[in-house]
Amino acid sequence: MSSKVSVRLGPAIAVGLFAMFGSMAAAHAAAGDPPIGAKGVVVADPAVPRPPGTRCVVQLFNDDVFNDFSARPYDYAPPAGCAGKWSKVVLEADFSVTAGRQFDRTANLWLGGVNIYFGTTQEPSATVSPSWHVERDLTDYDALLRSPGKGQAVIGNVVNDTYTGVIHGSARLLFYPASLIAPAAPVPDAVYPLGADPIGNTTTLNTPTDKLAKTLTLPRNVVRAYLDVFAQSQSGDEFWYTCVPDQYAAQTQECGGGNFREAEISIDGQPAGVAPIYPWIYTGGIDPYMWRPTPGVQTLNFMPYRVDLTPFAGQLSDGTPHEVAVNVAGAHGYFSATAALLVYRDPHAKQVTGHVTRNTLVGQAPTPAIGDTLVTDASGNLTGDITTKLSRQFVIEGYTTTSSGRVVSTVAQTVGFDDTQSFVINASTFHQISAQVTSVDSVSRSRIGPLLTVESRQQASYPLRVDYNQVLATDGSLSAASTVHQGLTSHAERRWLGFPTYAADLSNTIDTGDTLNFDASGALTSHTGQHSTQGYSFRDSYGSCYRVDLATDTGALASYASGTGCPGGQNRVWWIAHPDGSPDSRNLQVLW
Question: Which residues pair with 119 in a beta bridge?
Fold first, then answer.
């Protein structure tokens, strides 16, 4: 039977006056579409929509060099020139790595213990020094940015005679003052980081029982609460989506631990919500050539999953300490995690009271059903599938007695996971297809008496298909052909007093492939057939339309089309903010 080659060259959201922000092209294309033939980094992703007005800029760091594992500290002070309320705050960061050899590296930025950017880096080649630009809407982190603080950039990197790529980075915060046209965004009153590091760093979750946790004594007038969660797979868990349950690991020549992963949220040890894990693939993953010049979905710029904890607001307001925690079901060495708690307070009451009245998530352990059709013939050849499935429905409901009356908050969620691992393994072939879909359908409702005041729905799907086919030739050489389909689709709806106020749809998909060729000694000799496509689209009920489609061939941009299907062939995005202060759907990036 053949032995699988580990192909790895790297480790791995005042509806009133709207402000229309012209043509929204991807951030890297501010001066025009990227040139055909570009070999650096080219993505279809959009920039964060901006309101009009003169901005203030606070530089966090400029052209820092990352060539070791030491954090790069920086000091932050709010912009004196934009001291009033802000309509939007945006983080911009620019990175590059010198030509040569280098692993993909985890990159994160912190302020006062709160993560403000999380992603990975692009791998270079011997002749290409890639550079890339990332943005994140930090408007909801207003409370964090009102006071001076200390932060740090963490991009651990090894530079020596073998790994020669030196990473450079710069980052700044852009503040857009509130105005009549761009009113102040309704934002949380406080932001609390989970974790113990006062400046900021991730927590390692090696097993399902390991947890990222913080015990907090919150203000006594919390009316809404949300948790932004990041859970990044690392080390043995980097390729969790290809792993199989332990009992099949030996015969399929795959990693054990299964392939179901999910972040579990708890408050005082009681289940409080779930956050699906996105299968990010890093630029050294599976076959590094597939990701040049276009990396996978969100690879360079992760987005957090936001969990609605509002049913717990009354409990959290009782003046006693409460533990808020995150663990990863299925963690198998390991996940790198961080989270931030966003809290809204009652402006007209010093004390609110309330309790959780229903929680059907209690007692629903995240235990998937496992099945197989594996068959081994008399010659030892293996064929068949391994299936992993899980679907859970739960409702969490609680009330708070506020200055507006008794508010009942309900979160109803359906989460699903469906995975099939297909194998053909014989003397000359190792062929594995990993096909999975993670799905989530979440509805949050608020009522005052019989009146439904706010209803918000979020639906998301994360499809992934990895086809890996390794064939051994008679001379001992082998080829490893890989194709990947990776996607993220989401739909958001918003109602206020029963009337539709907003709806949006987002889709981001990538298809890519390449073949690696090795000689009989196992040395990589060539690669062939690199190609990829990415399509990013966004539409909303206010007439926003964004679409970019690109294609790459043999490591270079082959085509780039902007605004296809949008009115006039132009990308046009409206800058909006919800009148009730909802933190969801504020921009193109965070719809899931």
Answer: 107
Helix (H) or strand (E) holding 383: strand 382-402
Single-letter residue type at 134: V
Dist. CA 466–CA 23, nearest whole Å: 35
Amino acid at 378: A
Q: Which amino acid is at 356?
A: V
User: In 3D, which of 546, 589, 574 has the Cα closest to residue 118?
Assistant: 589
With 0-12 CB in 10 A as exposed, 13-18 as middle and 19+ as buried, what is 577? Answer: buried
**Cβ atoms of residues 120 and 107 within 8 Å:** yes
Q: Which of 508, 463, 470, 507 is nearest to 484 (CA)?
A: 463
Q: Which residue has the tokens 């932004």?
A: 228
- Give pLDDT tens digits for 7-63: 322 222 222 222 222 223 333 334 479 999 999 999 999 999 999 989 999 999 999
In the numeric block, which tokens belong to residue 217? 């004594």
pTM of the model: 0.93
The residue length of the chain stands at: 592
Beta-bridged to residue 341, according to DSSP, are: 192, 227
Q: How many CB atoms neighbour CB 286 within 10 A?
A: 24
Contacts with 513 (C-beta within 8 Å, 6 or more apart), sequence order: 290, 481, 482, 483, 484, 529, 530, 531, 532
For the chain, the straight-line distance linking the first and the last C-alpha, in angstroms and rounded, comes to: 43
Q: How far apart are CA 2 and CA 426, in angstroms?
A: 6
Model pLDDT for residues 306-339, shown as the tens digit of each residue:
999 999 999 999 999 999 999 999 999 999 999 9
d(CA 321, CA 80): 35
Neighbours of 89 (CB within 10 A): 27
